[in-house]
Amino acid sequence: xxxxxxxxxxxxxxxxxxxxxxxxxxxxxxxxxxxxxxxxxxxxxxxxxxxxxxxxxxxxxxxxxxxxxxxxxxxxxxxxxxxxxxxxxxxxxxxxxxxxxxxxxxxxxxxxxxxxxxxxxxxxxxxxxxxxxxxxxxxxxxxxxxxxxxxxxxxxxxx
Length: 159
Hints:
159 residues; alpha+beta; four-stranded antiparallel β-sheet; three-stranded antiparallel β-sheet; 3 helices
């Protein structure tokens, strides 16, 4: 079975988002008193007392700018939690994080269009869902999203 890897918000993009996010707003750092926020820069939950920021992020737009794709109306931005300062990125742990709740695996074409999606409910269902997605040669990348709010959690690209 192919092992897929979640892609966090890259460090250079994190730096940009903390200056001005993808909606043009400056980040507002806060101390996370309770912990538990899903951090997209290191793909783990925040710990009590960490400094985090909620920023607007447009992952498909940023991918399209790198590849020349035109996602058209599928270009969207949404809220994500990140560390409020430099982050070293993922430090070991699960290859596919945040699999403890139902998620949507949304497929995108090389042109940036949605090709479909699939609800995944069990942690052991993520690898098969991603393998199925990438079995379609038209699929260039996949977004894993939360069901309850539709929030972007991370991106997976072709192995």
